[in-house]
Amino acid sequence: MGSGPSGSSMKIVSAVITLLLMVVFLGYMMIWSMTPINTFYLNWFPDVEKKTSSTYLGEQGSTILIYTFPILFISTVASLYLHLVRKYDHDHNTSRFFSRMIFSRRLAITKGPLGIVTRTELTFLAMFVALLVWSLYSYMHDLFAFASVQAAQEKTQVWEVKLETAGLSLGLVGNTCLAFLFFPVARGSSVLQFFGLTSEASIKYHIWLGHITMAIFTAHGLCYVTYWSRTHQISQMLEWSKFRTDKAKVSNVAGEIALLAGLVMWATSFGRIRRKFFELFYYSHHLYVVFVVFYVFHIGFAESCHILPGFYLFLIDRYLRLLQSQKKIRSVAARILPSKTVELNFSKSSGLSYAPTSIAFINVPSISRMQWHPFTITSNSNMDSDKISVVIKCDGSWSHELFQILSSPSPTSRLEVSVEGPYEPPSTNFMRYEKLVLVSGGSGITPFISIIREMNFQSNRRGSRTPRIHLICAFKKYANLAMLELLLPVSGTTLDLSRLHLQIEAYITQETEPKTVDKSSIRTILFKPDPSDVPVSAVLGPNSWLWLGAIISSSFIIFLLLIGLLTRFYIFPIDHNTNNMKYPMPASAAFGMLFVCVAITIAASAAFLWNNRENGKELNQIRTIDMSTPAPSPASLVYETELESFPHQSLRQATTVLLGRRPNLKKILSELKEENIGVYVSGPRTMRQEVAAVCSSFSTDNLHFESISFSW
C-alpha cells in the first residue's frame, strides 16, 4: 500500500460507496419494473411531472430526474471509487472482493447460440427477460381494457384496435431494451469496471440486447403497418407530426427510417455474416447514428430521456476515443515471425501503466482511416517501461495488407499508427492461485504472453510467491513455435526466468515432423522517429478515472443549463402564449440532441486539453531523445534472429513439443482438480467451449474458469 488511507480505511470507503451505488441501481431497476403499471403511470409519474416540469426543464424534467440522473450519478461516483482503488489499493483487493461476491464464475452453459454463460449471467438474463415479459403483459392488459370503447369510437373491429395496442406496447418494451443497449460498448466505462466487467467481455450482452431490441421493434413496426393497411390508413406511413396531439403522438416517417437503419445493422450482425463479411458488418454498424437520431425524432426528446444515460456515457467514451485517435504514435520496431505474424512495438509515456490482458485499438491510415482493430497488449508495463507491444496475426484483408507492407524486401522506414487505449480488465489477481492453467489455440496465446511476463517479474521480487504456470498451446504448423519467443521482450531481460515455475506443452496438430524454418522470414525492422510522433499515453492522464467523473458531472450540468435557458426564454413563452401556438416537437428534439453533443464536447475537450498541457513536458522530452538518437542506416534496418535463440536457456528447457497431436484437456484438468487452479482459455470458439465443458463437469469450487476475449 502506498501513502494515503490504510487498507482497513479503504475497505470501509469501498463498502460505503458500493452500498450507496447498489441502492441507487436497485432503485433504478425498480423504477423500470414499475413503469408499466397504472399506479406509476397515472399517479406517481404525473405527480413527479408536476413538480419537475418547471419553466426551465419543461416536459423532460421528470424523465431526466427519474431515468437519466441515477445512472449518471452511479457513473460519476464509480469513477471516484475506481480512482481511489487505483491510487491507494494497488492490489485491487476491494474491487476483487466485490467482483467475486457479485459475479460467480460457475458455468451454466458451455455450448449454444448464447456462447459460454455463467450462472450469474444466466440469472440476470432470465431476470431481464422476465422484466420484458412483465412489462409487455402490463401494458397490454391495461390498454386492452379500453379496446371495445376505442373500436366503437373509431368504427373498427376490436381485434384491430388490440393489434394497434400491441404495437404500442411492443414499442414501449423496446425502449426498455434500448435503455441498456449502449452500456456494454462504452470501452472506458466506469460502470462496467465497477461491476467487474470489460467492454470486450460484455460484447455478448450487447449482442443479446441488440437481437432482442430489433426483434421487438420489428414486431412493433409490423403491427402498425398491418393495422394501417387493414383500416385503410396506409398514408399514416408518410406522417411526420410536428406537434404532439391525441391522434398523432409520434413522427411515423422518422420511426420508419430508424427501423430501416436498425434492420440493416441487425441483418449484418449475425455470426456467420459478421465473420465472413466483417467490413460489411463494421461499416453498416455506423448506421447507429441514423438509428438514434431518427428514434429521437420519432418519439420526441422528452420521451427519449428514458434511454439517454446509456447513450450519453457512450458518447463521452466515443468522443474521448476520437480525441486520442488524432495523435500519431511513435512506432519503434516491428518483429516479423513465421506464418505471417507481426509484433509491433510503440513508444509509451513513463506514467502509463496497464494490467496483463489489456487491449488497444490500432489504426493504420495507410491501409484504412476508418478501420480500428483490437489487439491484446503482449508487453508488460513493469518490464517494458518505455514500450508497448501488440501481436498481429495475418487473418483478414487489413492484417494481410499490413503484413505485406512490413515483410516486403524494402520495408518502410516509418509506420504511421494511431492508438486507442489501453483498456484494462477490472481484475487480474493471478497471484491468488496455486496454479495457472493457460490454454490457447493459435494466436490465442497473445493474452498469456502478458500474463507470463507479469508472473516472471513478480517471481523476481523479494518475498514474492507466484503460482505454477502450465501453458498448453496448440498450433497448426511447426513454424508457429516462433510465437513462444514472444514470451520474453525483444530487447531481452535481466530477470531470471528459472525462478518462474513454468511448464509449456506445445502441440503441433497438422504436422508430424519438425520443419526447417526459413530464417529470412524472422527479422526485426527498426522505424525512424518523426517530430510529429508522440508516445502512447492515457487519454486523460494518470488520474483518468477522476477526470472521467468530472467530465460526466460537468457535462451534465452544462446540458441542464442549455436546456434550461432554451426552455425558459424560448420554448416556454411559445407554449404558453395566448395564440394557442406550440413549439414544434422535431425542433425540440434537434435542440436536445445538439445540447447533449455540445455539453460533452465542451467538458471532454477541456479535460483533454488540460491533460495535454500537463503532459506536454514529458512528451517533448521523449521527442528530444528520439530525435537525438542516430537514425538506423539502411543496412541496420533489418537484422536476422534465430528461431532457437531464446534469450534464456530455461525457456527451451521448460518447453515440450508434441507433434501430430491435440491436447487431451479433460485428462490434464482432471489431474489438477484437487488444487486451487485458475483455468484461462483463449482461442477459437470450439476450444473455449471444450475447455468450458470440461471445467463445468467438475463439482469442485477450487477451479476458476475464465474465457479471455483475445484480439489479434
Automatic annotation (TrEMBL):
Cofactor dependency: FAD
What is this enzyme's EC? 1.16.1.7
Which terms are listed as keywords in the entry? Electron transport, Ion transport, Iron, Membrane, Metal-binding, Oxidoreductase, Transmembrane, Transmembrane helix, Transport
Q: Which SUPFAM superfamilies match?
A: Ferredoxin reductase-like, C-terminal NADP-linked domain (SSF52343)
Question: Would you kindly state one Gene Ontology biological process term found in this protein's UniProt entry?
Answer: monoatomic ion transport
Q: Which GO terms describe its molecular function?
A: ferric-chelate reductase (NADH) activity; metal ion binding
Per UniProt, subcellular location reads as: Membrane
One GO cellular component this record assigns the protein to is:
plasma membrane
- Tell me yes or no: is 4Fe-4S among this UniProt entry's keywords: no
CDD domains on file: NOX_Duox_like_FAD_NADP
Q: Which reaction does it catalyse?
A: 2 a Fe(II)-siderophore + NAD(+) + H(+) = 2 a Fe(III)-siderophore + NADH
Q: Kindly give the membrane topology term recorded for this protein.
A: Multi-pass membrane protein
Any idea where the FAD-binding FR-type domain is?
Answer: 324-429
Q: Name one Pfam family in it.
A: FAD_binding_8
Q: Where are the transmembrane segments?
A: 12-34, 64-85, 122-140, 205-229, 250-268, 288-315, 545-571, 591-610
InterPro entries membership: FAD-bd_8, FAD-bd_FR_type, Fe3_Rdtase_TM_dom, Fe_red_NAD-bd_6, FNR_nucleotide-bd, RBOH/FRE
Q: Which PANTHER family match?
A: FAD-BINDING FR-TYPE DOMAIN-CONTAINING PROTEIN (PTHR11972:SF196), NADPH OXIDASE (PTHR11972)
Question: What family classification does the UniProt entry report for this protein?
Answer: Belongs to the ferric reductase (FRE) family.
Protein name per its UniProtKB record: ferric-chelate reductase (NADH)
* Organism, as annotated: Salix brachista
